[in-house]
Known about the structure:
The complex is a heterodimer of chains A (233) and B (464).
Chain A: E1 5-11, H1 22-34, E2 38-44, E3 57-60, H2 65-88, E4 92-96, H3 98-102, E5 106-108, E6 114-116, E7 123-140, E8 147-161, E9 169-173, E10 183-184, E11 186-188, E12 191-194, H4 218-231
Parallel strand pairs in A: 1-2, 1-3, 3-4, 4-12, 5-7
Antiparallel strand pairs in A: 5-6, 7-8, 7-9, 9-10, 11-12
Chain B: H1 3-21, H2 29-37, H3 41-46, E1 53-57, H4 62-75, E2 80-82, H5 90-100, E3 111-115, H6 121-128, E4 132-135, H7 143-146, H8 149-160, E5 168-172, H9 176-179, E6 188-194, E7 221-227, E8 230-234, E9 247-253, E10 260-266, E11 269-275, H10 280-295, H11 300-309, E12 318-322, E13 325-329, H12 335-347, E14 352-357, H13 376-380, E15 386-392, H14 396-406, E16 413-415, H15 419-429, E17 435-440, H16 442-454
Parallel strand pairs in B: 1-3, 1-4, 2-3, 4-5, 5-6, 6-9, 13-17, 14-15, 14-17, 15-16
Antiparallel strand pairs in B: 7-8, 9-10, 10-11, 12-13
Helix pairs in contact in B: 1-2, 2-5, 4-10, 4-11, 6-8, 10-11
Amino acid sequence: MERPRIHIGWLYPEYMNLYGDRGNIIVLTQRSRWHGLDPEVTQVRMGESADFARFDLLVIGGGQDREQALVAEDFVRVKARPLAEAIEDGLAVLAVCGGYQMLGKYFKTHTGELIRFSGILDLWTEAGRERMIGNCVIESDLFEGTRTIVGFENHSGRTYLGKGLRPLGRVLKGYGNNGADRTEGVVYKSTVGTYLLIQRALDRRYGGQVKIGALNDDLEMRAHEAIIARFGK
Amino acid sequence: MNLRSRMAVWMGKGLVTATRMAGRGGTTLPGAVARKVAPDLLRTLAAQPREGVVAVTGTNGKTTTAKMLSSICEAAGWGVAHNRAGANLIAGLTTALIQAADWKGRIDQSVGLLEIDEATMPRACQEVRPKVAVVTNFFRDQLDRFGELEHTVDLVARGLAHLAPGGRAVLNADDPNCARLGTRPGAEPLYYGLEVEGAGSGSASQAADARHCVQCGHPYEYAALYYAHLGQYRCPNCGHRRPKPQVYIDRLWDVDALGSSFRLVSLEGACEVRLQIPGLYNVYNALAAAAGAVALGLPLPAIRQGLEATTSQFGRMERITIDDRQVFMALVKNPAGFDSVIQTVMQAESRKNLVIAINDRYADGTDVSWLWDVDFEALAGHQDEINFIICTGRRAEDMAVRLKYAGIDVAKLSIEKDPGAAVKQGLRYIQSGDLLYILPTYTAMLQIRDLIARKGHTKKYWEV
Lengths: 233, 464
């Protein structure tokens, strides 16, 4: 039998690719294979138009301030509207760090420059003086029941969520969205925005046609538990 | 030298002796204490060497480049005051010069040679006023400490603004971020680079950090690509291009697991060099050192002699024998460096037995997500040659997960959190005549080196 296909989009890989963002693509493709699926990764670059609805999953990585400013114009002009529609329609999106900020209304850099995005989600980001750097542990109910998520954050942007937007989780250790309100990330429909370089992929079923079973995650859980033992609680 | 400074030197020297007797390296504390007594001490000491001070900075290759340059200076008959233990923050620089000074605080060596951490460049250069500053390259490295790469480049630029009058910035023409430092007002740049056809990988790896024009952001076109993003680049949009190097290598041959041979060209002429350290990145280090020597006015024969006399620094890349087993240890600290080490490991014909030791202390970089940018998939491509991989260190589990996703058979992976125990385990698992590869991050390397030193197999590191 032919393996069911899973189509993964990767937005601005040539610019928004920092701090091991490639790791999320590696994890998603490998786990798809181990689940018996046939993953295909399509890069969506600057200047290219994109039909986001054809993807099952979209990944947007982080970028430095300079890279974000470079892609902002293209994002607003070409990508934002179809992406907003796809997100409303339930497209699964993993947006990390700079990619997460891009889903919001704007990013105000430490030099006072305003990088405008199109506000797909009601959130905004302003750079603070101190970078928020370190291991981070949050608690989330994303996975049917409360569980911890660990990762590493490194950002100067303080992100604030508008009324009615749910955070991905609550900070147990670290800074999270802004270092003040103990929230981290955002969840809207199937879109997840986060400052954490999450080391475990989000598995998702598509329309119930493809059932995926459980994988052996012993090694992954050991890595997770090691961080919880050091930093959790 | 005033009494205060002299007291600070005495105190520093006393502490160096005391910490050594206590069995510690003592490369930072004496300088830190002496600076409390005489805040101007580094400035006072650095003003003394007749030929001035050379600063060596950049992401990769600082220690090796400085060691090669030191060897060249010695070949030219110069005494060198050098922070060779690699302590490259302000206190470490001070300690090194205290050690070089006599009890009256006088430095007789002809030249000061200081490897300097990128973030320490602004302050260090203000105090030591280098005559020559060699910049190796910029890669993503310890972004948790430095913030973004742009910021690191800026820190180095701020250092270069404080060179001594008539000072020279020696810059890697093949690295766009490094070369652009030469466009800033200040020191007159001396560029070095490779002018070799067909060297290197030919394609930009994931570790490449400047694939886009540093002026306008458009992707570069490369006439030649040597290693990561280093090569002969040109921006088709705004025309920004690699400057022509004044010191370069135009031929490269016999590149193997033992070393490389190349022809070095400067304004003065050309000579052939046989380097005793493997890896294309060490060819770059040798070229950087040679260009630094040219900026100091040293002749080609001394450059050749100094480079050929340089052997691997323990831990950076060295082979040692423990009982009848061979151990090869290479420091890994960022994706570009790790990729090069993997390529060197894969060149060997024997079965691969590996210990990978990943710590996440401050000196290692507390963020280990860089492991996802390393091309471990290349290792997985030679699955059959791999016997075992022991993952160790504070982030042993993360390393194991990364290898699993690279496609390494989980049956070949094991986790032993303690680096010393992991190395002993590795030695038990191999047979007489076999080779064990140890690939540690910085603090893991210190742990393992202590273990091996206790077995009496190598010098303590401050003697390296």
